Amino acid sequence: MKNDTVYKKTFNAMLSHLGEQQPGSPIQSESVLKQRLGASRTTVRKVLAELAERGIIDMGPQGRSVIRLPQSGDAFERADTVSTSLQVEKKFMEWLLRADRKPGDVINELDLARQFGVSTSGIREYLNRFSRFRLIEKRANSGWCFMGFTKDFALELFEVREMFELRSARAFIAQPHDALAWAALRSLQAEHLLLQTEVSLRFHDFSDLDERFHRLVNDASHNRFIGDFYDVISLIFHYHYQWNKSDEAERNRVAITEHLDYIDALLSRDLTRVEATCTFHLKSARKTLLASVRA
Amino acid sequence: MKNDTVYKKTFNAMLSHLGEQQPGSPIQSESVLKQRLGASRTTVRKVLAELAERGIIDMGPQGRSVIRLPQSGDAFERADTVSTSLQVEKKFMEWLLRADRKPGDVINELDLARQFGVSTSGIREYLNRFSRFRLIEKRANSGWCFMGFTKDFALELFEVREMFELRSARAFIAQPHDALAWAALRSLQAEHLLLQTEVSLRFHDFSDLDERFHRLVNDASHNRFIGDFYDVISLIFHYHYQWNKSDEAERNRVAITEHLDYIDALLSRDLTRVEATCTFHLKSARKTLLASVRA
DNA sequence: AACTTGTTTTTTATGGACAATAAACTACAG
DNA sequence: CTGTAGTTTATTGTCCATAAAAAACAAGTT
Q1: What is the rounded CA–CA span in Å between residue A102 and residue A145?
Q2: In the beta sheet, which residues pair with residue B136?
Q3: According to the model, what pLDDT value does residue A184 have?
């Protein structure tokens, strides 16, 4: 049976919307709320009905109005607002990291279903989607096989990454001067400089910054296949950052410096410098990654 | 409920295996048959039981033996040996081709399930897998959307294709002289020459040859991501070949000539020639594809 | 021990049920 | 006729049941 996470999430969103109102003020029409809350009108009506039931709003025949402002206890638990499929996603990644799996290990749908407290269908659907990352593979009539994050995998990943990023970087500097990407780049530059001074305090914020920077560059090629491929990179880096914490601060310090050089080169629009700094950074990133991959 | 296509397929395979025997000759052990037929021992036993039931083999306590050779009527229908998921795959592609869908069209799981005579779960699973081709996209709580094979799609596809194939072609000529790929290439060259003389007779055999040639080249890079990407190309070309039959013979004639030049260049191991012929062919292929894409 | 077949357990493939959600339809008021 | 709320219909997300198939276990034979 479908769970009602959409309803609960919408309910909570409506509560915080009501929080900005005054008691007595009228409530917007269902279609306006539908837009605002990003759910169907059916769900909005269910939320309104519950709010009336709880005495938070009034649904008189001549229009609806706020009775009292919602309190923090009115909201549903945050955990109840996340759909089963998202839960599976999260739990699967944790599971992958927790037990240190080896290439060739089999993944058991039923077992995961029990561990995660969802049905096998949920697992099955997730694994099907997850297979696009090439970390697992399906054997007909017999479950999934963990392919593992091997040295070959990393090398192949970086081969494509270098191709794509170099091309994207070239496309980046070919953008018109007034493209929004330039402002975004300067803003990322500022963030890098800030993080550089605070790297010892919040050094794992770098993971996020790294992704935003490389995505910005890759987006310049306006190619969905390049964008897709960056999803694979992101996943692997996320996985890797979680997995290998040794020298994290030092690795990030180096990467920030390389990024700043790369950003300078992009801002200068000097192709030779861009190619040099981009290649240098990627080679360095590859070395770091390879160092933490099992033989 | 699971269907028994594996059993039926195995049964048929066993029949043709028995066809090579003599009446009276002994039957191999279950584990040998398991290897040979590529199924589990459970399935092999089920097959043997049915063969005994039908009086085709004897299962006496001192060993099993052939009683009579199977006849053509003994086999199961071919249609019964194809799993539901494969049926869905086939029917979905036909469906995509038949009705000329426009970008933005929604795909209805229930509707497809009814048309294909399978459950919605089957459709759902297939669409999830199919989404990797980027031709459809999922909207949360509201079905799938056909993205369409647009001009942008084709251009982005070819941008990546050119990058990958050029790199693969370079890797190809860097292979040692005794690599198996060289023999395979010469054999493909012969097939091209043959097809060239018969192009007017069997001009749609080219589609298959085309795929095998480009796969061979791309395999030289030994990169799973490049291989994966070629799956997308294959699908699109298959789709396109089915869809646009106009000038097919002429298009193929041109492509065969270009392939032969490209193959010559590869065999010569002359990088400049390889790059020139490869680029020329891909540009030409792109032009052909774009010509048949809706605006 | 290495193989064999018989038996039991585990796991997958597929269909189907059903509440939640979205979307469509209807009627009424300004 | 446009926008509103009420009502009905269609579709999706999730779970569960069950036969098929795989895998594991057991025991006998050479």
Answers
A1: 10
A2: B146
A3: 98
Cβ-contact B157, B167 below 8 angstroms: no
* Residue from the list B141, B224, B229 with its beta carbon closest to the beta carbon of A225: B229
- Contact criterion met (CB < 8 Å) for A224 and B153: yes
* The pLDDT of residue A245: 76
Instruction: Assign A150 to helix, strand or coil.
Output: coil
For residue range A210-237, list pLDDT tens digits in order: 999 999 999 999 999 999 999 999 999 8
Which nucleotide across the nucleic acid strands is nearest to B143, CA versus C1'? D12
With CB atoms and an 8 Å threshold, state whether A125 touches B128.
yes
* Coil/strand/helix, residue B54: coil
Check CB contact under 8 Å for A128 and B132.
no
Distance of alpha carbon B124 from alpha carbon B146, whole angstroms: 14
Whether the CB of A170 is below 8 Å from some CB of chain B: the reply is no
Structure tokens at A278: 């981009």
Q: Are A103 and A143 in contact (CB under 8 A)?
A: no
Is B232 within 8 Å of chain A by CB?
A: yes
Given B40, B129, B223, which is nearest A160 (Cβ)? Answer: B223
CB A163 within 8 A of CB B226: no
pLDDT bracket for residue A295 (50, 70, 90): low
| Residue in A with minimal Cα distance to B227 | A156
Band of the pLDDT at A101, cuts 50, 70, 90? Answer: confident
What single-letter amino acid sits at B176?
P
Contact indicator for A145, A102 with CB cutoff of 8 Å? no
Q: How far is CA B96 from CA B99, B100, B107, B120, B145, in A?
A: 6, 7, 10, 17, 13
